[in-house]
Amino acid sequence: FFNDTATTQIYTRSLVGSVRCVQETGHKEVSKPKPRPKLTSKRETFTKVTRMLIFTANLSSISLKHMAIKETQIEILVSIFQKYANITSANLSYDELNHKTGASLVKLCVKNQNIKVLNVGHNILCDSGMKVLLSGLTGNAFLTSLDISSNKFTAASAPSLTALIKASPTLTYLNIEKNTIEGKGWEILCKVLIKDSAIKYLSANAIEIRLDQISNLTALIAQNTTLTSLDISYNVLFCGQGYYTIHEALASNNSLQYLNLSCTFGGVTEIINFLGGIRKNTRLIEFVWNECFVGDEMVECLCNFLKANAPLQRLILRKSKLTEEGIKVIAASLKENTALKTLDLTGPYSGEFIKKMRLLCNRLLLQQNSICIA
């Protein structure tokens, strides 16, 4: 339907197909929007995927993320795991698995002792389901990676977790973030991680450990010889004396290469002393320190830290309180640093400020350095 003299849009529902609409200015043609495709339910998707898996040869990895798996459906997975004894990786995260499915999960894992990577993060297993799962996994001799993050378990599950760590000499990656482990659970875990662990990568952010547990953390950092990556961000650890004690532990640590202390809080004096002490560490390659209120009064110590820490390649300081003058000093000091590749100062800056600082940094920095301001 088309009308060259129309002054307003003209529509008709009697025509089949696309309808062209004409406006007075420019005679712009607008096509009728295509109908949205019918959404497939999670249950239908799970059924289609599992049917396809049954007829797939040489299956070694399975990912059923965001499938909302029910207890009865896990039995289907058990049959799949029985058929494919060579499955080594399983991702069941974001599947709404609850404490009732813990026994079924164990059955799934026990049927296949070759699983090396298991991700059941972001479910609701809670303590009852987690205890059953962890107990069942202790018989797996090949497990290298376990993600049980955000499952609403507490310190009550810590003994089961430590038993698994002791019984798993191949376990090198452990993610327990966003669970309410708190002080008692953290204390139990640290004792095992210091002596009886092969874990290299530990993510323990937001597990609600506080300042009274700083001694366990410093002991872990000072005495553990296997950890190369540690994330303990978003824990209230370093108010007051916390920053004074951790830098001593970092100075004696010879294995850590990645450290994340984002949003662990601290005053000006504590942070200045921390930066002075952490200069003694000669192993860190990447240091993430977001939302820790690093401001211009700490710039001198920060520059000294950058000069002294020879292997450091990435420093992430997002949402800091640095101003134009502070960034100028840092950018100028990087001329003497040949190792640092990236300095990320992303923060709540205005567009004009960002443009100005980028021009400044491009002028001051050598080719081997890069600075991010956004």
Please describe the topology of this protein.
Blueprint: H1 42-54, E1 61-63, H2 71-83, E2 89-91, H3 102-111, E3 117-119, H4 126-137, E4 145-147, H5 158-167, E5 173-175, H6 182-195, E6 201-203, H7 214-223, E7 229-231, H8 242-252, E8 258-260, H9 268-278, E9 286-288, H10 299-308, E10 314-316, H11 324-333, E11 342-344, H12 351-364, E12 370-372
Parallel strand pairs: 1-2, 2-3, 3-4, 4-5, 5-6, 6-7, 7-8, 8-9, 9-10, 10-11, 11-12
Helix pairs in contact: 2-3, 3-4, 4-5, 5-6, 6-7, 7-8, 8-9, 9-10, 10-11, 11-12
Question: Could you describe the 3D structure shown?
Answer:
The chain is built from 12 helices and 12 strands. The protein is an alpha/beta fold and 374 residues long. Strands 1-2-3-4-5-6-7-8-9-10-11-12 form a 12-stranded parallel sheet. Helix 4 packs parallel to helix 5. The longest helix is centred in the middle third of the chain and has 14 residues, at 182-195. It is elongated, with a radius of gyration of 27 Å.
Provide tags for this entry.
374 residues; alpha/beta; twelve-stranded parallel β-sheet; 12 helices; 12 strands; elongated
Give helix and strand order, one letter per element, not per position.
Answer: HEHEHEHEHEHEHEHEHEHEHEHE
Gyration radius over CA:
27 Å
What's the rounded overall pLDDT mean?
77
Structural class call reads: alpha/beta
Helix content: 25-40%
- State the helix count: 12
List the strand order in the largest sheet: 1-2-3-4-5-6-7-8-9-10-11-12
Number of strands: 12
Give a short overview:
Helices cover 37% and strands 10% of the residues. The protein is of the alpha/beta class. The chain has a twelve-stranded parallel beta sheet with strand order 1-2-3-4-5-6-7-8-9-10-11-12.
